[in-house]
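Hey, resending since the last one bounced:
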Amino acid sequence: MKILNARCTSKARLDGKIAVITGANTGIGKETARDFYRRGARVILACRNIEKATAAIEDIKCNPFPSRRMQKIEDKNGLGDLEVCSLDLCSFKSVKECAKKLMKEPAIHILVNNAGIMFAPYQITEDGFEIQLQSNYLGHFLLTLLLLPKMQSSTPGCRIINVSSLAHIYGKIHLSDINLERSWWYFRPWKAYFQSKLANILFTKELARQLKEAKISGINVYSLHPGVIKTELSREFHSTIVPGATFFFNYIMRPFIKNAEQGAQTTIYCAIDEKTANETGLYYSECCVTNPKGVNDQKAQDLWNYTCFLLRLETNENFSTLLETVTRQLDK
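The structure tokens again:
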């Protein structure tokens, strides 16, 4: 069996562009940062573990071209810049502190909401939400709204990329039990994960609609499935699925799993490829538009309204006023 392995073939440069990537200290986030750095961008790694993020920067600087093929494509003299910004998506306080620092940047052209956790044991964050829901979705929702005014002033050509998963097809948004509290005693971590990844796609669809309705142009939004990848996300499998699941995923399934560099290709495609410049609100896999399951306008709007309620935002405000309301939270 041969894995699908489409590649972003665009030679677009990112000189003068500023990109923010969450969870860029490892996996596909790190490889996305490496790619943007090669193209000349200033890349900000927004990460919880500052030590790992610093080590990632050193590795990227020492190995900007892991293969000769890349070195033929890119201009080694046109490397960008790398910086770390502290971000813990499981803390809204941390999200706001990170956004406050990022708003001091001269511009933000690309935001890659990449960070996440997978099949984690049941845990409630300091803000009162199931940990996968907040890390994979709510934290990114808030961060995106906080950074949108800066991106709006950085147009045209700005892009927001939400990393989702094919696993969304098994997901359901439990609006009446968003933390899955009623089933905590037989909690299934994959149920929470599937919900969070479906939420990312619905968020993408509705954010694109909100931007269009508010006549805010120059910011496109994308969601994607990166492929089945060997990353640190599998570290909890042995305890949350069955003993030996981590070993099975990392070794037995190895021939059918992408490495991180391969898995980053669709993210990079959405972020820089010329063909996606006029597309927004869509879902991608293998560098190609595809149709997600369980997604429609009404579900997207319902989740948007409920998320605003959870974040104590007024859902009856127009989008521009909503952004002003969120921005005021940075001063609290």
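Strands lie at 18-22, 42-47, 81-86, 110-113, 158-163, 219-225, 282-285, 289-290.

Sorry for the duplicate.
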